[in-house]
Amino acid sequence: MLLDPVQVLVGPGQAVEKQSAVLIKNRRLEAFGDEARRIGRLEALEPQDAGQQLLAPCLVDCHSDLPEPFHGRGETLLSLVRSAGSSGFGQLALLPETVHGPREQPDHLQGFAPSDCDVNVLLWGGFSSGSAGVELTAHADLLDAGAVGLSDGRSMPPIALLDRALTLGDMGSAPVLIPPLDLALRGEGLLRESVCALRAGWPSDPASSETLPLSQLGQLQQCHPDRRLVLMALSTAGAVELLQQMPMPPQATVNWWHVVADSSQSSASASTWFVDPSLGSATDRQALIRALAENLIQAIAVQATPLDDEECLLPPDQRPRGVSGHHLVLPSLWQTLVVTEGWSPEQLWQMISFGPSRLLGLREECLAVGSNRWLLFDPDQSWTPARPDPMGPRAANLPLLGQTLQGRVMDCGLRIPATRPC
């Protein structure tokens, strides 16, 4: 097909070309601009007007959960790469926690490359044995076996163990992904401490449960400037303020749901209020957006936490926290950051593609002749997410169901599993 005109974002550091043209053959990019038009004329192709649409590199998710990758009743590896790939995600990095224990041995990293699929599945290796924060795993062996970095998932190891690991330095320059979280301070808190949380009557989570451990992690980064600490999923204005004050702030990510939602926007019974880390106020959300714009936070992660239908029936204080839905991420972020906040598409892609790639130590996604790593996004397309979507995720904890969304990935060049697994 010949898209003419169409907006094109080739890669990092480049501006969107507003009135370009693209020739796509067998899902691969054949030519751009005048060369695409010339070949289109020779082959008598009818140009398709896609002037409002954006052809851009694939997206990158730097951390998400998949507890049961092969035999789950809900989301599995095949269903995840199908739904994420059809939503434009070319790379997914999975946290080490599974129902069978964390990935802490080199052989635990095998078998995660789906056949006939172009979505790259990357794996975080376990930081400590059993994620217990007592003994270190064989960091060098895990990285040699292909782990993209080290993490204990949603658990924060003790500072003393972190310090010892960074001093040993077996991880070299690989990222060490740590959530700044003091479980004792969080207690039973479900919502970040705020007026909204008090009105709703749910147990509140003080900002100090994030800011106190973050201060310690910032000190560790200063003591080990050659190591790469990454703060996982910041969620408070206080955390942003601390980052601004640090002479050598660690890299950081934010969960997409904390960018588009806050505790003032939902009803007190909404399951999408209860995520990890705790959902904050509108002030927290605006601080996180400013931190992204100032590059204090380098990547937006999906941090999907897929739950099955039975898990979603549990009371909020008994079920795992989190939301899922890779197909909701780009439309929601486009509306929040581009339409409402006035960001450029280039800024958005920096946070959902190029920045996550660099954080993972990977080469950035880009458009190239002969490549099928592209997505076509229409910001004007209206649609309504629904559970029966054949290309949607199998997770039951999806936000925004039944709501009309603006913006959708219309096509993607990646090969993905074509049918919904049974």
Note down, in words, how this protein is organized.
The protein is of the alpha/beta class. It contains 13 helices and 16 strands. It has helices spanning 33-42, 77-86, 139-144, 159-168, 183-186, 195-200, 208-223, 237-245, 256-260, 282-293, 309-312, 329-340, 345-359, and strands spanning 2-8, 17-25, 28-32, 48-56, 59-64, 89-94, 120-126, 149-151, 175-178, 191-192, 204-205, 228-231, 251-255, 299-301, 375-383, 405-412. The protein is globular and about 65 Å long. The two termini are 33 Å apart. The mean pLDDT is 93.
Structural class: alpha/beta
Give the overall average pLDDT.
93
**CATH level 3 topology of the largest domain:** TIM Barrel
Percent of residues in helices:
25-40%
Cα Rg? 21 Å
Give start-end ranges of low-pLDDT stretches.
none
Task: Tell me the number of helical segments per DSSP (H or I, 4 or more residues long).
Answer: 13
The CATH class of the largest domain: Alpha Beta
Number of domains: 2
Instruction: Note the overall shape.
Output: globular
> Helix-strand pattern, N to C?
EEEHEEHEEHEHEHEHEHEHEHHEHHHEE
Q: Could you give the order of strands across the largest sheet?
A: 5-6-7-8-9-12-13-14
How much of the sequence lies in strands comes to: 15-25%
Q: How many angstroms separate the termini?
A: 33 Å
CATH architecture heading of the largest domain? Alpha-Beta Barrel
* CATH-defined superfamily of the largest domain: Metal-dependent hydrolases
* Beta strand count: 16
Q: Would you kindly provide a brief summary of this structure?
A:
The chain is α/β, with parallel strands linked by helices. Helix content is 28%, strand content 21%. Helix 7 runs parallel beside helix 8 (237-245).
